[in-house]
Specification:
Low-confidence stretches: 89-103
EC number: 2.4.1.16
CATH topology of the largest domain: Flavocytochrome B2, Chain A, domain 1
Structural class: alpha/beta
Main location: membrane
Mean pLDDT: 86
GO molecular function: chitin synthase activity
Subcellular location: Cell membrane
CATH class of the largest domain: Alpha Beta
Helix content: 25-40%
Membrane topology: Multi-pass membrane protein
Shape: elongated
Length: 528
């Protein structure tokens, strides 16, 4: 966190008050409100302290050269600790009237041990204000160069640190001073201060080029850091700092370009031609788990009432275990069979098959029901497979998951088309389909997979089949999926946007290249 002096000047309100001292920024908002500042005889009031807000306060905390530079300023050079410099920070010093109330001038004061300390700034100010420190002061390099080159004021930069050395030069050049007392910095460094604005304010290379030992370099640096340091160079507008911003902007532009391209390419301006009346056999698979009777009934009725010849449809429901769903009074298989009108007394034999599972759960048993279902004048053949489980299963008997239900039917058709050996359950399905319902399994060309809580629009199947008939390369296809309860809550309202983008942009864009990566499990059709 860094601020320029202009930034600090503007932060001087009671709700937010900043000040700077020797290159660092402090938030004094809460400090001003505290009581007990100053010595016992002359407490500083909040209205007096508030005058410091927005200012540089170096003059209120003077530091003597001997205390700051013990290696360079000996007791013989300054026996009474009199050498000090007004480091004011480019005419931004605190209001002079405020200094009347609160100035830490080292002096003999029997009532205040702190104010008498020559090292007040390091012993008391820095520890006392560390919780209020917010960051550092920064200076723009253009401004520093302008002050150095145009006005010959010694604002110098060493390793990106800014030092205000003009007071040191003034003290040396002042006629009344003894130079032997005031020029305590190394003479080789002082030579860099007498170039009359030559070059730039950044003298880092010259500083590093001075031929002196490490101890001398360190003692001179420590002295300047304590006496003349006022902040660092402002690099916020430099390439290193702005690189991440530029990178984020570049990524944002690329992202927006991708979205725009996907949107434009997904726009397919074509009229909706009414679908033909295809004569293709379709299996409408509905896996059921814990859905309630209303949801299952809505799905079955919507598939029955499709604008598609009923003789070419087969309603194939798979109940994944003998499960009682939340809020239901009967197991899901019983709900399905009651909807389809299956006699409760009818109990077909169980047939074995291999499930998608591990260990003993690979063995599962299913029962097959078949018949005709009528709704609003439409009669459709149906088959129901109920996974009942083995006698050893007590909890969730027969349940193997939705994937197992889908693979069960796909595996059946795979064995039908390639004349492979079948399990007892698959043989029972073949028998029911071929001899009871009267349609050879090989006749079915498409598999429509619909969840048990999904309602299908009347023309959906005709459009899907017609599209597949027009392009033999299509292996899978889907239509738009919309929410039936979009106004229920704010989360369902958000899902409307997600569903719309997923279909009209993502899938529409991918379909241009014939490589749709994902179809919705609740409503998709595949070519058998």
């Amino acid at each position: 966190n860094v601020w320029t002096m202009d930034d600090i000047t503007n932060i001087n309100e009671p709700k937010k008050s900043y000040m700077s001292t020797r290159g660092y920024v402090y938030d004094i908002t809460d400090f001003i409100k505290q009581t007990g500042h100053g010595n016992a005889r002359n407490r500083a009031r909040p209205d007096q302290l508030s005058r410091y807000a927005g200012f540089d306060t170096n003059a209120s905390f003077p530091i003597t050269a001997r205390a700051a530079c013990p290696d360079l300023v000996s007791a013989e050079r300054d026996p009474n600790y009199l050498i000090q410099y007004p480091i004011s920070g480019a005419s931004t010093n605190v209001d002079p009237q405020a200094g009347v109330y609160f100035k830490h001038m080292p002096q003999t004061d029997p009532t205040s041990k702190e104010l008498s300390s020559r090292e007040f700034y390091w012993k008391y100010f820095e520890p006392g204000m560390k919780n209020f420190k917010k960051g550092g002061v920064v200076w723009k390099m253009d401004w520093l160069n302008s002050m150095y080159k145009d006005q010959s004021i010694q604002w110098l930069v060493i390793n990106k640190e800014v030092f205000y050395l003009q007071p040191y030069i003034d003290a040396i050049q002042y006629a009344g001073n003894n130079n032997n007392t005031y020029n305590f910095l190394d003479s080789r460094f002082e030579a860099l201060l007498n170039r009359g604005g030559y070059g730039t304010a950044d003298i880092t290379e010259d500083w590093l080029g001075i031929n002196w030992d490490a101890a001398t370099r360190q003692s001179n640096y420590d002295c300047m850091k304590r006496l003349f340091y006022v902040g660092k160079v402002d690099e916020r507008q430099g390439v290193r700092c702005l690189f991440t911003n530029y990178m984020l902007v570049a990524f944002a532009c690329v992202l927006m370009l991708v979205v725009l391209v996907k949107f434009l390419t997904a726009l397919q301006f074509s009229t909706k031609t009414p679908p033909k009346d295809p004569e293709k056999f379709v299996v409408c698979q509905v896996p059921c788990y814990t859905e309630d009777e209303e949801s299952i009934l809505k799905t079955i009725n919507s598939l029955t009432a499709l604008d598609y010849q009923s003789t070419y449809k087969l309603l194939f429901l798979i109940c994944d275990g003998n499960i009682v769903g939340s809020g239901n009074e009967k197991p899901t298989p019983r709900i399905v069979l009651d909807i389809l009108g299956v006699d409760p007394e009818y109990d077909p034999p169980g047939r074995d098959y291999l499930a998608i599972a591990e260990g003993s759960r690979r063995h599962n048993i299913g029962k097959v029901y078949s018949g005709l279902y009528e709704y609003e004048g439409n009669t459709i053949p149906f088959m129901v497979v109920v996974k009942v489980g083995t006698p050893e299963e007590a909890n969730r008997s027969g349940n193997r998951g939705k994937r197992d239900s889908q693979i069960l039917l796909m595996s059946f058709f795979n064995k039908v088309h390639f004349n492979l050996p079948m399990t007892p359950l698959e043989l029972e399905i073949y028998h029911q389909m071929r001899h009871i319902l009267g349609v050879p399994p090989r006749n079915y060309e498409y598999l429509l997979q619909v969840d048990a809580d999904t309602e299908v629009m009347p023309d959906a199947l005709s459009r899907l089949v017609t599209t597949c008939m027009g392009d033999r390369r299509i292996a899978g296809i889907c239509g738009e999926t919309m929410l039936g309860n979009e106004s229920t809550s704010w989360t369902t309202m958000i899902q409307v946007y997600e569903y719309f983008i997923s279909h009209h942009m993502a899938k529409a864009f991918e379909s241009l290249f014939g490589s749709v990566t994902c179809l919705p499990g609740c409503f998709s059709m595949f070519r058998l």
